[in-house]
Amino acid sequence: MTRVLIVGTGLIGTSIALALRRHGVGVALADHDPDAVRAARRRGAGQAWRPGSPVDLAVVAVPPEHVAAQIHHLQRVGAARAYTDVASVKQAVIGAAGRLGCDMSTYIPSHPMAGRERRGPDAAAEDLFRGRPWALCPLPQAAAPARAAVLDLIGLCGAHPVELPAADHDQAVACVSHAPHVASSAVAARLAEAPAQALALAGTGVRDVTRVAGGDPALWLDILTANAAPVAEVLEAMAADLAATASALRGLPAGDRAAAETVAALLRRGAAGRHRIAQAGREGA
Amino acid sequence: MTRVLIVGTGLIGTSIALALRRHGVGVALADHDPDAVRAARRRGAGQAWRPGSPVDLAVVAVPPEHVAAQIHHLQRVGAARAYTDVASVKQAVIGAAGRLGCDMSTYIPSHPMAGRERRGPDAAAEDLFRGRPWALCPLPQAAAPARAAVLDLIGLCGAHPVELPAADHDQAVACVSHAPHVASSAVAARLAEAPAQALALAGTGVRDVTRVAGGDPALWLDILTANAAPVAEVLEAMAADLAATASALRGLPAGDRAAAETVAALLRRGAAGRHRIAQAGREGA
């Protein structure tokens, strides 16, 4: 892989560009905002794109709702031999690409599982993806060279590939990312109107739980909207658990054994899930 | 302050003992389990307690349901000039102490806002409380010297005191600690039965959200039980937010503006709450 085009020089696009530059890959940069390209160039992320002979891979790092149109445009002008995107949802993007008539043999949808609270090229870091999972969701008609190009990209970024169908991806990220974000927001929302004295008692636990709630609300509305049904399903299960626990706690002062068991069961399931994800982290590291 | 008695040489009691030893304070150790005292002594936390002349302060670091009886016993034998406890709920403990006839002029209920996932004297650390808030909830009849002794203890542990009524304390910790723990458990519970592929996609965000869910379920059942009503109230509000968000997401694919606004509003409230607690941390540090 010698030449890559990055379309969208925000946090993710610029971080990918920096990782590729470190390996000596030629990087061309494009963005609808010329200031974003300039900022990425100042970071040493590459040069402004000048259409010419096709690059090895085009990485479309724009908001989910614009991915399909961008892929379609790039394929029409023959910008690259292979294409990928980095949107956090896959079924909606693939559906839109199909409706526009994109060539799904050279387009390999993907999603790096990394991010930061800050956005934009100035927040980019070449090690943003190091040691992180990076999902890829090739369709059955995917061409082997295109899939190989995306695997190359993932390797050059220091991430490890997780290949799975788009529907499984969307359910997985609802469970491990999108719904946890909403739960974090629901915890943090209580703190928005709590007395100052209550905040003074906050320890590290609630800071951990609410960290992701600091993410950009507009960006997250887009993400949740694009993965609405899988996220709703997980949120409904969480809401039911919290409501059942609240109801059991209301019954506890009377010494209700079944109520105590309801509360204990959620705590045990939570500890089991936490243990499992902590183990998954160790295996993945 | 020259001599302190620690009753209950678990994580919290032994950590307090280590912090006091570092300042040259004489520490006497007691626990219903002789092994726990031996383990704390091996850590250099002090010597086994031998009843004699009263110490300056007795710190009762036993599970909430045993605090009142322990304070009552120590006061009856005249073990100390002042008494405190470290239970994570205050109204229930104070109520029980009142019913037993404890002297509330020398007993100043308190609660250090610090902990670890591991328990026991071997997990203890002298810096466990450094820079952390430590609530104290003196009753109106509290004697000034007893209150001063607890403030001394807090200072020697490197923590900063937050004085507030017990009822306010219990509502505050429901909001900043107990309900966030249950929310973390509800997120982690989803991971207990998720496909391995989903766990493979987990990033740092969900690991942050679920960290506290790794806490001991039996210990947390005790904590939640002792603060049942305030926790239930916060959980009901969270469950309502999650259910409303799920319902709005179900309505989104049809392009429902009001539904999108429901989702966006929670994300914005969450970001505001997160900003507020991040600021509180900076001011407290």
Automatic annotation (TrEMBL), chains A, B:
Domain of life per record: Bacteria
Assigned keywords, A-Z: Oxidoreductase
Domain Prephenate/arogenate dehydrogenase: start-end pairs: 2-285
Segment forming the signal sequence: none
GO molecular function list: NAD+ binding; prephenate dehydrogenase (NAD+) activity; prephenate dehydrogenase (NADP+) activity
Keyword Protease appears in the UniProt entry: no
GO terms for biological process, alphabetical: tyrosine biosynthetic process
InterPro entries from the UniProt entry: 6-PGluconate_DH-like_C_sf, NAD(P)-bd_dom_sf, PDH_C, PDH_N, Preph/Arog_dehydrog, Prephen_DH
Record keyword Oxidoreductase present: yes
UniProt similarity note: Belongs to the prephenate/arogenate dehydrogenase family.
Annotated NCBIfam families: PRK06545.2-4
Name the record gives this protein: Prephenate dehydrogenase/arogenate dehydrogenase family protein
Native species: Bailinhaonella thermotolerans
